[in-house]
């Protein structure tokens, strides 16, 4: 069992990366080999709409034809990854642009325009998505973020054949020193308390998510 986590945050040691690392720790505890890829280390673009992946009997049928630093990652997912954990902060109500571009490259090639549309990805893969965000759970619902979570779950489930799990970490601590920025909108003391009291529980939930993914056949 090989579990790959994809960090869609530019920060390698903050909220999203921390939760992904915990999830991988959980998977490793169940005997999985693990790997963490930081998307911001890679030079790549989103889908360029070349449609090479859709050409019947073409050399790239079902696969992304673009040649850039995402290619080896996509190849590993196709050949050796058994579980995939995506992580992204919320930026302006969405996953980051880098995660979005990655998903275009991952999800569009195996999707064929059959009726109904279906995936020709050659294997089944367990998937999960971890989101981190400044807003609390109530505001997240008010802002309509869950519609994006549901759409992403549906796309991943269709592509890889298993139900996708979503884990959200709300009201995250955003930077080391709240004293250095204008801070009327948030209460730094409440942020610090939440970081101390709730984020460790989010980390535990991420750990058990990794355990669950690795335990499944
Ligand atoms: C450019 C930018 C846009 C953001 N937009 C939102 C947003 O729309 N909603 C939200 O809840 N948090 C927003 N945030 C906060 C981040 O989602 C949050 O701090 C997240 O935990 C950061 O993840 P990281 O620590 O892994 O980098 C934004 C942060 C940045 C830098």
How would you describe this structure to a colleague?
This protein has helices at residues 15-29, 71-79, 97-107, 137-142, 145-160, 188-197, 199-215; strands at 2-7, 33-38, 83-91, 94-95, 111-112, 118-119, 126-132, 165-169. It is of the alpha/beta class. It has one domain (2-215): Rossmann fold (3-Layer(aba) Sandwich). It is globular and about 60 Å long. The protein starts with a strand and ends with a helix.
Distance between the termini: 8 Å
CATH class: Alpha Beta
The share of residues in helices is: 25-40%
Largest sheet: 6 strands, mixed
Q: Give the names of the bound compounds.
A: flavin mononucleotide
Give a topology summary.
Layout: E1 2-7, H1 15-29, E2 33-38, H2 71-79, E3 83-91, E4 94-95, H3 97-107, E5 111-112, E6 118-119, E7 126-132, H4 137-142, H5 145-160, E8 165-169, H6 188-197, H7 199-215
Parallel strand pairs: 1-2, 1-3, 3-7, 7-8
Antiparallel strand pairs: 3-4, 5-6
């Amino acid at each position: 069992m090989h579990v790959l986590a994809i960090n869609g945050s530019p920060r390698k040691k903050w909220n999203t990366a921390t939760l992904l690392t915990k999830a991988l720790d959980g998977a490793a505890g169940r005997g999985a080999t693990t790997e963490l890829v930081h998307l911001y280390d890679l030079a790549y673009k989103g889908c360029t709409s070349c449609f090479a992946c859709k050409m019947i009997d073409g050399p790239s049928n079902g696969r992304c034809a673009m040649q850039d630093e995402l290619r080896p990652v996509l190849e590993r997912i196709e050949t050796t990854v058994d579980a995939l954990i995506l992580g992204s902060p919320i930026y302006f109500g969405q996953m980051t642009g880098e995660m979005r571009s990655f998903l275009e490259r991952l999800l569009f090639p195996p999707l064929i325009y059959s009726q109904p549309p279906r995936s020709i990805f050659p294997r089944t893969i367990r998937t999960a998505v971890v989101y981190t965000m400044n807003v609390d759970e109530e505001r997240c619902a008010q802002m309509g973020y869950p519609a994006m979570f549901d759409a992403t779950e549906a796309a991943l489930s269709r592509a890889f054949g298993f139900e996708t799990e979503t884990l959200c970490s709300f009201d995250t601590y955003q930077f080391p020193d709240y004293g250095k920025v204008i801070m009327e909108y948030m209460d730094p003391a409440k942020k610090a308390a939440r970081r101390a009291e709730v984020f460790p529980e989010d980390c535990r939930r991420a750990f058990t998510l990794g355990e669950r993914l690795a335990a499944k056949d």
